[in-house]
Amino acid sequence: MEESELLVIGGASGVGKSSAAFALHDLLSAQEVRHAVVEGDALDLAHPAPWHSGIAFRNLSAIWANYRAFGYNRLVFTNTVSVLEGAAIADAMGDQPRMTAVLLQATTRTIHDRLGRRERGESLDAHAERSRVAALRLDTEAGPAVHRINTESRSPHEVALQMNSLLGWVG
């Protein structure tokens, strides 16, 4: 079985993680690169929130086992703090992947504008504040091995091209 590879894409809400991941999926698909994409935020999206239970990692483990059973060895994983949890994500995969970590960044104004396309009123204010705090934490705590990509005034496709150049994945 081929060695697995992992791309973790992190960043504050509104920075463009999902859009960039979907654009990368399109790019990799066009190049016939076998891969899977998992939106980490959905792995523990429940009420009441089970964040401290470790269920997200258990769910990832189960999902990745299914992909591996079908021959997949490359995973694109998005989650706000994924660049800080790379080791735990790799452990959940269970097969010691080669990991590339990317932190997407944008200005507070741009993030607020993007969040404003999906949130309104108090919800927008709350999301914008959480995003601002997360951006500061991520920039401070993400180590030097984490690649930083500014999404400011860039299309998801342009961001995907830059991430793809870091990966070197071929079909």
Automatic annotation (TrEMBL):
Alphabetical UniProt keywords: Kinase, Transferase
UniProt name for this protein: Putative kinase
The organism's place on the tree of life at top rank: Bacteria
Gene3D superfamilies: P-loop containing nucleotide triphosphate hydrolases
GO MF annotations in UniProt: kinase activity
